[in-house]
Design a protein that fits this description.
The complex is a heterodimer. By secondary structure, chain A is of the alpha/beta class. By secondary structure, chain B is an alpha/beta fold. Chain B contains 19 helices and 15 strands. Classes of the chains: A alpha/beta, B alpha/beta.
């Protein structure tokens, strides 16, 4: 073989998608965040040019079907034109077919794979083959990796969107096993779908680059793409390059025996201005009541120079809840009752909530909450009562 | 703990009173206004001080008293000094030392027996009044309730955060859907635009032909005047009719001939006039005769000079005969002023000056010239003047005179003969000679002229003939002139015609065809093109508007934010609901724990009060109390007021017993008042029985109560 080249692997761009985790008090924040996704892709294009990449592959979910507009596609097409080198795209579950896409065509350097596998060689690079296949619809039952067979005498890069070893997904997104990916003559599986980057295997390479800009707290940390260098027909470097504009950060602060100032100083050290932060307060102390009774997110946002998207209160008040729960007074009974409910499981909690006819109308929302989220609601309720009872004393 | 005694120095309206209490049931009887309420308040506030303001009786600094109690076998004293209680407070079961709670549970008034809520209202609120810490829960529970009501709405049509968010979200959804439906049109618009562009191209082709036609038509229109002029000129040209063209050579030749003829004529005329002049000089004499005498006449001027000299000589001789001698001649040089020059100069100078005021510098020049002239004139010029020469002698004078005379007369005769021969009049020698000389010159000259005249005549004849021959072609001189004019006019017309034809041709038209080669074009293509262009423009605007998704993006952002808020509101609602539920559970539990004891005890008390007639029951499912009488069960609605009073008293006492664990005394303020006599006795017996388990102090102003109390063992009666 002896192929020598370099390429950029990215996926799950979700250009144009909206951010849900921000307060309506800062309307510009939403705009800034949507723009940051575009800017991240722009940086990826810059990277491809500055590092002399020979081509780029995008493994699906370039868009977000609920927010796609001609302007988004137009902007994407412009960036691809600016890339000015071959770009191979396969469609994923969030890439819808629209009536107007032919009116805004991609530039000539872009090739989008069809719904059956294609194999492409590039002029000027020997020993390279790029294979790919797109989703036919927003869900894909076919096992796409098993449809690919690469040439043994070339370095084969396979570009596709799939869900490797998924457990319990509601719909099919080309489910497959990691074992499906070996022995197919493919040297580098450039896949997409999972938003947290991961190198599932190095022989052959199976890589999820993750999405390019976090959109909620579960997509925290740095986001970007992989720069892959191949020398002598083997991957000589696999480098992650962060290109995100906004970082989501999840931090935990202990209030035990501390004042608000102490806590804020610690927070300052853990975050950088411009990040989006979720703060979980834990511990026992007097701050419990203050945190529960007031919405501190706006104040914390100002003080830290970040956007605090959520404040989770897992603190307990200065009273000794354990000993109190054994007591026979109201507070004790409330604490005990709350704990019992929290431990009683998802169904019991949902039953309590949905017993209310108005709440029952929003069943879908409550049912979509995770077990932890439901337990947190119960804990919030208990804490709120205890704080309220303490406050009235 | 049992209260032993109370000693009041000063409290409310009471001064220096003491009371002692038994460990069981003590009935304290006193008329109204005897201070029952005051004493009760003293005991209560000493045991469990209340921070409440506006208490009855109002507290004074002068308040003082002691309360003695026994606990665990030991006696202790509490002192009230200046609103403060000193001393060791008795230990009381958890929560019972809360002032509000204490007062509500361990103190009873008649009105408490009217209040069914304790038992009827699965009534959490009322339960709280009987539960430690219970009263802090209602406000907390109320906030939780408020939270879920404001978030979710109390009823399906109540205002709520979620409801308003939902409506805002759905109107944004409508906006987004509208925008999206516009967006979806992008492809359609693009296709329509392509169609229109094709049509435009087709129309363009058609229109080009139209434009060309219009162009030609316009050119034709602008050349109509040329065509008119052309036809007028052609007519004029034709009107010139037939004529003989005069070529430039002809013209030149004609001119030449004419000028020669005229020159010849002039010459002839000149010659003729000169001859006439000369003939004047002949003075009528025959030329030939004069010519014959020419030689003689030729000598006359010279001989005349001699004659004149002779004359002078004669005169001189004659005068010498008469006059004296003279001196030598003198040549003088005199300066003669030239008057004319001077005058001229002066005039010039003045004129120059005047003009100089008006027009310099020529005027100044004139002035200068004038001045110079004046000066020159003044200086004059030289003139030489001859004076006559000196005289000669007069001797030979007479002989000379005769010779001279002879000479002179010979000459005179000759001249005279010639004159008469020629027929000329004589006027004197000089004149005659002059005349003859002139005549002679004239005759000679005429002779000479004859030749010239002949020649000139011949020339003229020749020139005239040639001219005539020449103009014959043109039918004479007038004919020639006419032809010449016609020729010129024709040339001019032709030139103009050529110009016009040239202009018309270069405009692309045929000069010979004075009609427009194309039909006037219709404007339909260009109108339609205008429409098509406008439609294309509109479509492109729409397409650009679709690409400008700022509004759509803002809506999508807003929707995301609102969805987020909605989630929060739903969660807040859930938290409120859960909090209420947890509170209810806690109450359930606490009540269920307390309750069985309470109900059992209340049942016991009721039985005691009613001599076993009535028993208390609870339906564990409904938590409502009911009374059993044998097999008969009466729900709350069926109790008489007396029965109700008994039930409530039993229940409340039971609650006090359970909560206080028998260690906290109960203070009753005339609670048997609502009872009839029978019931009073039953109640007192029950109270006496209960007093074995906890201390009861009953204050009453009712004599009957006191009387019955005295009849029952175990009841201590005291007067207030």
């Amino acid at each position: 073989m002896g192929a020598h080249f370099r390429f950029v692997h990215c996926a799950d761009l979700h250009l144009g998608s909206r951010f849900k985790g921000v307060s309506s008090k800062d309307p510009e924040a939403g705009e800034r965040m949507t723009e940051s996704v575009f800017q991240s892709f722009s940086r990826i294009v810059d990277l491809a040019k500055s590092e002399g990449a020979d081509f780029m592959v995008i493994a699906g979910d370039a868009f977000d079907e609920s927010t796609i507009t001609p302007a988004t596609r137009h902007r994407f097409a412009s960036e691809l034109a600016r890339l000015d080198r071959p770009c191979f795209i396969s469609r994923g579950n969030h890439d819808p077919h629209t009536d107007w896409e032919s009116s805004i065509p991609y530039p000539p350097n872009v090739h989008e794979f069809g719904t059956e596998p294609e194999y492409i060689e590039l002029d000027g690079i020997d020993g390279l083959e790029i294979a790919g296949v797109s989703f036919a619809d927003w869900h894909e039952e076919r096992n796409l990796p098993s449809m690919i067979q690469g040439s043994p005498d070339r370095f084969t890069v396979a570009v596709l969107h799939c869900d490797v070893d998924s457990v319990g997904a509601q719909y099919d997104y080309s489910p497959c096993r990691l074992s499906d990916m070996s022995g197919r003559g493919v040297d580098y599986w450039a896949i997409g779908h999972i938003h947290r980057r991961a190198v599932l295997s190095e022989n052959p390479y199976v890589v999820y680059p993750g999405n390019i800009q976090g959109r909620k707290i579960t997509e925290d940390g740095e986001k970007g793409c992989y720069l892959v260098t191949v020398d002598g027909g083997r991957v000589s470097e696999l480098r992650f390059v962060p290109t995100q504009g906004i970082v989501w950060r999840d931090i935990c602060l202990d209030i035990t025996g501390r004042t608000m100032d102490d806590v804020i100083n610690e927070a300052r050290g853990a975050v950088r201005p411009g990040e989006i932060v979720r703060i979980t307060f834990t511990g026992t102390g007097e701050l419990d009541g203050a945190l529960r009774l007031n919405d501190s997110s706006e104040y914390l946002s100002k003080v830290l120079g970040c956007t605090v998207c959520e404040v989770i209160i897992e603190t307990s008040p200065s009273i000794d809840m354990d000993s109190r729960s054994g007591g026979s007074d109201m507070t004790a009974k409330v604490i005990a009752s709350g704990r019992r409910l929290a431990a009683s499981g998802r169904e019991a909690i949902l039953e309590r909530i949905l017993a209310n006819p108005i709440a029952a109308r929003h069943r879908d929302y409550y049912v979509s909450l995770t077990d932890e989220e439901l337990v947190r609601l119960v804990e919030r309720a208990t804490g709120m009562l205890v704080a309220g009872m303490g406050a009235s004393r | 703990m049992r209260i032993r005694s109370a000693s009041i120095r000063s409290f409310g309206g009471i001064r220096d009173r003491s009371y002692r209490f038994s460990d069981g049931l003590t009935v304290l009887h006193g008329p109204n206004e005897s201070g029952k309420t005051t004493v009760m308040e003293f005991i209560r506030s000493t045991l469990v001080p209340s921070p409440k303001r506006n208490q009855y009786p109002s507290r004074e600094k002068t308040d003082s008293g002691t309360l003695t109690y026994e606990q665990d076998g030991e006696e202790r004293t509490l002192r009230l000094v200046q609103k403060n209680v000193e001393g060791e407070r008795p230990a009381m079961p958890t929560g019972t030392d809360d002032p509000v709670l204490y007062r509500s549970v361990f103190a009873m008034t008649p009105s408490d027996l009217d209040d069914e809520k304790v038992v009827t209202e699965g009534g959490v609120r009322s339960r709280f009044l009987t539960v430690p810490g219970g009263d802090s829960l209602p406000p907390a529970r109320a906030s939780a309730e408020e939270m879920w009501e404001s978030s979710l709405g109390r009823r399906s049509n109540s205002r709520s955060k979620v409801l308003s968010l939902d409506s805002e979200i759905s109107s944004i959804d409508a906006g987004i859907a509208e925008s999206r439906s516009q967006v979806d049109r992008y492809g359609e618009l693009d296709r329509r635009r392509s169609e229109l562009c094709d049509e435009l191209e087709r129309l363009n082709g058609e229109s080009k032909a139209d434009i060309e036609a219009k162009r030609i038509h316009d050119i034709y229109e602008s050349n109509v005047s040329n065509y008119d002029r052309l036809s007028r000129l052609q007519k004029e040209r034709a009107d010139l009719g037939e004529f003989v063209t005069v070529s430039p050579e002809d013209e030149a030749r004609y001119g030449d001939l004419v000028s020669r003829a005229s020159a010849a004529e002039n010459e002839l005329e000149q010659l003729n006039s000169r001859r006439q002049e000369e003939e004047r000089d002949l003075r009528g004499a025959d030329r030939r005769k004069v010519a014959a005498r020419s030689k003689a006449i030729e000598t006359f001027p010279g001989r005349l000079q001699a004659y004149k000299e002779d004359s002078r000589t004669l005169r001189g001789l004659e005068s010498r005969q008469r006059a004296p001698k003279r001196s030598a001649p003198v040549t003088e040089v005199r300066r003669v002023r030239s008057m004319p020059v001077m005058v001229l100069g002066l005039i010039l100078a003045v004129a120059g000056l005047v003009l100089g005021v008006m027009y310099t510098p020529y005027a100044l020049a004139l002035t200068a010239v004038g001045a110079v002239a004046v000066v020159l004139g003044a200086r004059g010029h030289e003139v030489r003047v001859h004076s006559p020469s000196p005289d000669t002698d007069d001797d030979g004078t007479d002989a000379e005179i005769g010779a001279v005379r002879r000479r002179m007369s010979a000459f005179e005769d000759e001249v005279a003969s010639v004159m008469s021969d020629l027929g000329l009049e004589s006027y004197g020698m000089e004149d005659d000679v002059e005349c003859l000389t002139k005549a002679r010159d004239a005759a000679a000259s005429i002779e000479r002229m004859e030749r010239h005249v002949l020649r000139a005549r011949a020339d003229k004849g020749d020139a005239d003939t040639k001219l005539l021959q020449f103009t014959q072609r043109f039918s004479g001189k007038e004919g020639f002139q006419r032809s010449l004019e016609s020729t010129r006019r024709a040339a001019d017309i032709d030139r103009q015609i050529a110009e016009l034809r040239g202009a018309i041709s270069s405009a692309g038209l045929d000069p010979d065809v004075p009609v427009c080669p194309v039909e006037r074009p219709t404007d339909s293509s260009s109108a339609r093109m205008g429409d098509v262009r406008q439609e294309i423009g509109t479509i492109e605007e729409k397409m650009n508007a679709i690409l400008d998704t700022e509004d759509l993006e803002r809506m999508m952002d807003r929707k995301a934010q609102l969805s987020n808020e909605r989630g929060r509101a739903l969660e807040d609602g859930a938290v409120g609901l859960l909090a209420c539920s947890i509170a209810d559970d806690a109450c359930e539990e606490i009540y269920s724990q307390v309750q069985p004891g309470v109900i059992a005890t209340a049942d016991r008390f009721l039985s005691m009060m009613t001599d076993g007639r009535y028993r208390l029951d609870t339906d564990p499912r409904s938590k409502d109390l009911s009374i059993r009488s044998g097999d008969e069960v009466k729900g709350i609605g069926e109790w008489s007021s007396g029965l109700r009073a008994q039930v409530l008293l039993s229940v409340k006492l039971a609650v006090a017993r359970e909560m206080g664990e028998g260690r906290v005394p109960v203070i009753l303020d005339d609670v048997l008042l609502p009872f009839d006599s029978g019931r009073k006795e039953g109640a007192l017996r029950a109270l006496a029985g209960l007093a074995g388990e906890m201390q009861i102090l009953l204050f009453t102003c009712d004599a009957e109560t006191r009387a019955i109390a005295e009849t029952i063992d175990g009841i201590t009666v005291r007067d207030m």
